[in-house]
Amino acid sequence: MHIKSFLSYIQQAAESIDKEKHSELYTKVSMLAKTVGDFIERKTAQKTGAVGISEKCKEARKKFAMELSSVHKEMKEANDSALSDAVEHIDLAIQFMQKMEDLRGLN
């Protein structure tokens, strides 16, 4: 599993949202994607070799997960079939985060 796959899920969700019809959701998902993208850039700039989220970022991960879940819930509550692709991509992102947390629990 790689964080760039996670970023891709969120970017695809943003791309599948009608910007005019759901501008607020689009903005929220785009900001989540930017957060992940910025994280990847910082890690790459630090030349750590592997891109990952260290244990010291546990609070940041928790906050991000809550924001992602909130947007996911908001999309589902909108009950708009035009958001179905976005919901599916966010589902994948959430599953990715859960798998990463499970793997962290094994260490």
Would you kindly provide a written description of the structure presented here, covering whatever features stand out?
There is one protein chain. This protein has 107 residues and is mainly alpha-helical. The chain has one domain (3-106). The protein is 75% helix and 0% strand. It has helices spanning 3-15, 23-45, 58-78, 84-106. The longest helix has 23 residues, at 23-45. The radius of gyration is 14 Å and the shape is globular. The two termini are 16 Å apart. The mean pLDDT is 84.
Annotation keywords:
mainly alpha, 4 helices, globular
**What's the domain count?**
1
User: Which residue ranges are poorly predicted, with pLDDT under 50 across at least 5 consecutive positions?
Assistant: none
Number of strands: 0
Please report the distance between the alpha carbons of the first and last residues. 16 Å
Helix amount, in percent? over 70%
Helix count from the secondary structure assignment: 4
Percent strand? under 5%
Mean pLDDT: 84
- Helix-strand pattern, N to C? HHHH
Overall geometric form: globular
Over all CA atoms, what is the radius of gyration?
14 Å
Main sheet summary: none
Task: Compile the SSE list and pairings.
Blueprint: H1 3-15, H2 23-45, H3 58-78, H4 84-106
Question: How would you briefly describe this protein structure?
Answer:
This protein is mainly α and 107 residues long.
